[in-house]
Specification:
The protein is of the alpha+beta class and 221 residues long. It is built from 8 helices and 6 strands. The protein binds iron/sulfur cluster (SF4) (2 copies). One iron/sulfur cluster binds at residues 133-135, 169-175, 213-215.
């Protein structure tokens, strides 16, 4: 189908086939479907419609961060973007085989700010892939916060998955206590402090907020 056509309605059977094919792509560990109309614009951010004007659903996928760094190189941003571009293209090819149109989202972020234009984490939560922890990361039930998230928008009607009904954050406050800059507080996260951690500490922080989080890593979940 082309972009001018009316959105296609994807049957449950087609959805299962699509998800199965996406799950078998390199490094992908999980995939879910989010209803784009449920997305809440973040302050100063944009909406998925900026990336695909008639977007209906978002295919949201996760991969383990360590797998991405191992495969694409240790420089996080370069590695991440390379992975996302390649994986988005692979998903778009899968969609094409099913007669569907997709647009991968590579969010370069808002100029001069530290946030992306759209929140992949929010879309991942809407797609039932996890919940947001005190460390502000997506917590996946199996892989915890050590995941990267990718998004491909479609203008097809695919039945969305439900957000998880269980909070995964254990409220152990380890992330809060071990963060040396104080960027994580009980009621908020100071992304500017976190971003400037190297300047503030004179070295990297070792990301204990992610590495020590027990969700998904200790078999407790
Ligand atoms: S990355 Fe480091 S500075 Fe930022 S919240 Fe985590 S522990 Fe704190
Ligand atoms: S370290 Fe504890 S409080 Fe922080 S996100 Fe993980 S489970 Fe939640």
């Amino acid at each position: 189908m082309n972009e001018k056509d009316e959105p296609l309605i994807v049957t449950d059977e087609q959805k299962q086939a699509l998800e199965h094919e996406i799950r078998t792509l390199p490094l992908i560990k999980d995939v879910g479907v989010a209803d784009v109309s449920s997305y809440k614009q973040i302050p100063g951010g944009s909406t998925p419609y900026e990336f695909l004007h008639d977007a209906k659903t978002a295919l949201v996928y996760v991969a383990k961060t360590e797998d991405v760094l191992h495969t694409y190189g240790k420089w996080y941003v370069v590695s991440l973007n390379h992975f996302l571009k390649q994986t988005n293209d692979r998903i778009i090819t899968v969609l094409k085989r099913h007669g569907l149109h997709g647009r991968g989202v590579i969010d370069e972020g808002t100029k001069g700010d530290l946030i992306g234009k759209i929140s992949f984490r929010q879309l991942a939560v809407l797609a039932g892939l996890g919940t947001i922890g005190k460390n502000t990361c997506l917590l996946h039930p199996v892989y915890g916060p050590k995941v990267v998230i990718g998004v491909v928008l479609t203008n097809s009607q695919i039945q969305n998955d439900d957000p998880l009904d269980t909070e995964l954050c254990l409220d152990c406050a380890l992330c809060l206590r071990k963060c040396l800059t104080g960027a994580i507080r009980n009621d908020c996260f100071d992304r500017y402090v976190c971003k400037n951690r190297r300047k503030l500490l004179g070295k990297g922080c070792g990301t204990p907020c992610i590495d020590l989080c027990p969700v998904g890593s200790s078999g407790k979940i």
